[in-house]
Fold each of these.
Amino acid sequence: MTLLDKFKKMPSIDVNRLPVHIAIIPDGNGRWATRRGMPRSAGHREGANTMKRIVRLANEIGIKYITFYAFSTENWKRPESEVNYLMSLLKEFLQNADRELAGSNIKLQVIGDLSRLSDELQEEIHRVTENTSGNTGLNLIFALNYGGRDELIQAIRKIVKDAREGRINPEDIDEKTVSERLYTGGVPDPELLIRTSGELRLSNFLLWQTAYTEFWYTKKLWPDFSKKDFLEAIRVYQQRNRRFGGI
Ligand code: FPP
């Protein structure tokens, strides 16, 4: 069976015009579980499974970068038990990463302020990013303890320091000066942003990087998000007319 046969009943996309980078806000895990009378943690577990399915598909069709908003700087406000559960899911994913990512040529990267994560988690992240650093397939990026404003503040601090120490001239500061000092330095801006569960907010995700990003949303909750939905988002993206402020 060829790749095309496999996607026959799926929304048809042009594999030669794929977005290079897709950003995803996987929202609605909690509601998915609550509606089923289950604890919120069950929604997060199901959400992690959805994430794995979408990552495999993205890698298979040739997407180069996918960034998941896995844990925001605001998510610490959740009950401690829920924060701990999310951290344990992440740890589980990383511990199984050799198996999950083996043979897939996927490279794991993380963005965000990792210093607030446990030492154990930081070590696991370091281990998996090192082990997969030579891979040339999909770049899977987890945003962890990530906030767009926080990222800009870090970048501004670096720029001020570089200027003060004479490495850059304030007059020469341009978009590149900022871009390369963000957590995403070296990563192309996302062309497409997907958000589930019907919310129409950016929620402090990739503020600088989404200046010209096409936004696609669905009312479906993240655990219900399917491969078909992912391909549909790409199909719609491919029909949009991106003008970048031109005509
Ligand atoms: C949103 O649902 C989801 C999150 C806060 C976390 C995203 C986590 C995953 C997709 C799974 C685990 C991640 C990794 C990296 C293995 P919500 O809790 O905001 O749902 P609600 O809006 O219905 O309450």
Note: The beta strands are 21-25, 65-72, 107-111, 139-146, 192-195, 214-217.
Amino acid sequence: MPKISIVVPCYNEQAALPLFYQEITRVAGEMDYAEFEFVFIDDGSKDDTLPMLRRLAVKDKRVRFVSLSRNFGKEAGMLAGLEAATGDFVATMDADLQDPPALLPALYKAVTEEGYDCAATRRTTREGEPPVRSFFAHMFYKLINRISDADIVDGARDYRLMRRAMVDAILSMREYNRFSKGIFGWVGFKTKWVPFVNVERVAGETKWSFWKLFLYSLEGIIAFSTAPLALASVLGVLICLIAFVFVVVVLVKTLALGDPVGGWPSMMCVVLFLGGAQLLCIGISGQYLAKTYLEAKRRPVYLVRETEEGVR
Ligand code: UDP
Ligand code: MG
């Protein structure tokens, strides 16, 4: 029988976890044509998540877990899960039931019968989300698709089912700064997009503030595009052209018209603008340098403290 691994990153999910487990086992029960393995990642939770996982693993042999030594973030958790998963097919989904397990049979059908390597989900509405956040999200997707070669779909969730080949491709990307949406797009493979209507989390709270999301989007841009680095050159050329026109204007005014060019305010504008533009460009280079620095250290993306087999 083919084996499906379900990878679930969990950070302080004690409220949602029992509901999730109930729902996923129900769906797994319906899909009796496949074998299941549930790989939960405890991403350094401070609540009852880990004891709960321990109990589940004792009760249900399909349940496995990997507990990280501290909170490493969802991206690290997903990597830990993909590395631990042993299935022929691997699905990633959130623990808060915002990724409905009920879609699994349809996703599975797409990869086994319809010739896709991956079936991914996309939410069609952003209901229940502040409008400002939706606006910036749309802007982000437009921008990143223009400046990067990873195909990143607006509204895509991290809920997807992949064939082993695609999972191995993702695992072969050893980068430290992991922006999953970009990585999924970058590896390619034939992906079927399954739309569904957005659902709110069943219990507990979201871990994402607007500011965190904003910083995360910058990470995504830095990880998957070098276009911002070209900004300095583009600005430089533009300013040189403007300066050249300015020189001609000043020369003509002084020599031909004998008009002494007054200019303290205009000078200040030019100095401030140039100073600002230069700092901006150095700042952008700095961001890339910082990421390069972190990559160069080759630190592990996550550290494991405990699994269902015991404490390491
Ligand atoms: N998560 C995680 N580590 C973190 C933050 C979140 O493993 O540092 C998990 C969380 O438990 C959930 C999923 O990532 O299963 C999505 O998180 P959340 O629901 O807070 O994000 P949202 O759905 O609001 O984007
Ligand atoms: Mg959620």
Note: Strands lie at 3-10, 35-42, 63-68, 89-92, 118-123, 156-163, 191-196, 304-307, 310-311.
Amino acid sequence: MLNLVLFGPPGAGKGTQAARLVEKYHLVHLSTGDIFRSNIKEGTDLGQLAKSYIDKGALVPDEVTIGMLEAEVNSNSNAKGFIFDGFPRTSAQAEALDAFLSSKDTEVSFMLALEVDENELITRLLERGKSSGRADDQDAGIIKNRIQVYENETAVLKTYYANQNKFFGIEGVGSIESITLGLCKAIDTLV
Ligand code: ADP
């Protein structure tokens, strides 16, 4: 199985690039942010809980997020592999993912990290907020909070995967197409 972790700060372009990669490599795209948002839309209990965190720019608690992600993997038992987008976001999530995939005799193949500087991120998120309807993209304070949470809790995962020789940084600034090419080049070299 090819199991990619697509990584990067909020606004790095993970969702955009994941959509392009799934087509080329026939993987299942699991975006925890998208799954939370569809639960919010459908008014589920999970959605209500997630909303209270997402609206502040905070992370949804690990046990909730991990349980949801594992259920999604289990419900795609025929998948050739996955692109994990927005997961893992904490050390506990990364450890849970390793244990879970290992129980299925598979593993994270590698992490591809989109590298984008902070000013560019804020510009992109505010721009997305004008059309996406996402409240968490419309408020500079919430955006700063998300970037801060990324620095404090998520960025450490680069070291986590580097220690397993699975970390690869990719230039995340440029045209969408050129970034896709960079990602594909890395994937094709690694598999
Ligand atoms: P972005 O990467 O632009 O912040 P996402 O759609 O990936 O957007 O996530 C939106 C929000 O959903 C996050 O700010 C967080 O509140 C919640 N979320 C998504 N993935 C996770 C996760 N793995 N753990 C905890 N919370 C998450």
Note: The mean pLDDT is 97.
Amino acid sequence: MSAAPSLANLPVTALKGVGDSFAQTLAKLNLFTVQDVLFHLPLRYLDRTTVVPIGDLAPNTSVVLEGTVVRCDVVMGRRRSLVVTLRDETGQVNLRFYHFTGAQKAQFAVGAEVRCFGDPRLGASGIELYHPEYELIQPGAAYKPVDQSLTPVYPTTEGLSQARLRKLTSQAVALMRTSPPAELLPAEINRRFGVETLAHALAYVHFPPKEAPIPALVAGTHPCQQRLAFEEMLAHHLALQESREQARQETAPRLPVDSKLLQDFYDSLPFSPTNAQQRVIRDIHADLSQPQPMLRLVQGDVGSGKTLVAAAAALAAVGNGWQVALAAPTEILAEQHKRNFERWLAPLGFQVAWLVGKLTAKQKEKTLEQIAHGEAHLVVGTHALFQEQVRFAKLGLVIIDEQHRFGVHQRLSLRDKNAASGAAPIFPHQLVMTATPIPRTLAMTAYADLDLSVIDELPPGRTPVNTVLISQQRRADVIERVRDACLAGRQVYWVCTLVEDSETLAAAAAEEMASRLRQSLPELQIGLIHGRLNSRDKEQTMAQFKDGHIQLLVATTVIEVGVDVPNASLMIIENPERLGLAQLHQLRGRVGRGNIESHCVLLYGHPLSKVAKERLQVMRRTHDGFVIAEEDLRIRGPGELLGTRQTGALQFRLADLERDAHMIPLVHETAELLHTYNQALIRPLIQRWFAHQQHYVKG
Ligand code: ADP
Ligand code: MG
């Protein structure tokens, strides 16, 4: 350690311009010390260093472009929008604004010069920029020079501008010159990444010099970023190991399963568990009979029957007089679980309650009471379960379904909801379920605190879903096919997708599709479900579909996770090329659940690029979630395998478990080294990356 004062102990108020009230704003970002500011790394960069000729625009990379307004119109359509056409010597492009003022419209007079910055996308009129940032150039004035280096963009909070954050980081970087942060990794690591010091890497990443290689920085593959990402992954790994070690020291209730009860449950089912289900259930029951908390991840492809495994686990708890909390990511799924568990557990004498956002205040109060008094044996819920007021009398087991939709913190917060703690606290066992196929090494790092069981077999009698690619030009044929299927007593999903990730637009598209289909298929009962409906309507529609009153269900991708209607045997997916393969796989998993032959029609838009076609072909060839995930990775590049970054489940600043997967072996190796030779460095390492993330690090 150096003799200079450590920035880890220097409060943010030591920085110029930071008073007490500003410090409070910074606290919202968990920035308390100057070291915290140093480790507050850019999320991404804006490249405003070159002006791209309009003729060279390609979708999905941010650009600066300049041009003259040649047209400006308000266009009616599904939504009213202002469309501004810009031209330079190489071509023309449309800017589209859904929200705009009269003044804005007036600004874009024909002949005006505009510089704008945004993400080109494939839109209605070819390449378009939606809501770009823009700047009008005064007549006769020259364009200002473009930026000389990349602009960092930091995670921020309300009332804190990027400019102000940049001022702070630049002060912190300057201070670091005299008090560099401690090098906590073996010296070998800097050499491996070709980086002189940690301080150098930090400074570079905050303020990339002019000559920095832009594509590498934008992709996050620059050696300085990789050096930091490595340390972050290592710290994460060590933190999870530590939390696992701590959990092993804790006390959990012993919950040996009552074999008579289990047998009664199996006897009530119309089928018997697969070998894979039985094996995983045995793993779980073995864990549950121990006085330390179980921490187990069950991975099983869509349709492999994870719900049954969860039920068998729950039986061990309720059979011993302990409660179970089951968290599901959506209300639709929570509702479905409630029905299943009621059907399974009520005959055995157990009471199932549910807790979701839409309950009335009165219902909620009653449910909370039942939970607190232990009258509810199993509680199914959405995120509402994590709320502060929820207290269990004797919580013995926590089950999280579709883990990737939740954060590590949410899972861990349920641990502390147990009132049944006298002198010595008692912690619940934890069971986490996911359909996301994660390669084993990745899983070892992403979920280093969990043991892993895999359900590697589907229930018998499933015929693989026959998947076909059909162009939208043949829509009429597909509609006929839907009619035939419904008249033959089958049920059908019609799924609408959208380019933009907006549930509002998706809902509008689904509504439009439903009314078109009602016109073409007047003899069918057609339902509609999307994220914009209130939960009562959603629930009612799902129930009617389950009961067979609705034959054709038009939906957005809200039905993606978990929904189970075995009689549904045909799924039409509009514009499947807009979705990732993993998501298509999840969607397709909604059919092929009964023993009728099922079909999935990928109704693609015209024309389809070669790459897009190649991707969709993968769906025809295979049903194996692992193969699909790997193909997705190969064709699209890293992106959405874990599905966690968007929801922030892993909360990395810089690391990307997919992009940086190649470093995982080195992470494991270095962790071992530290455990063997340098245990004293482990705490400070975790501290500087995760100090303020409560549940990662205790004590
Ligand atoms: P997922 O793993 O995707 O959550 P589910 O638990 O929803 O799968 O189960 C999918 C369907 O398979 C359900 O209809 C369920 O009743 C059925 N199922 C589960 N286990 C078996 C089994 N061993 N034999 C036959 N059908 C089963
Ligand atoms: Mg499920």
Note: The longest helix spans residues 223-249.
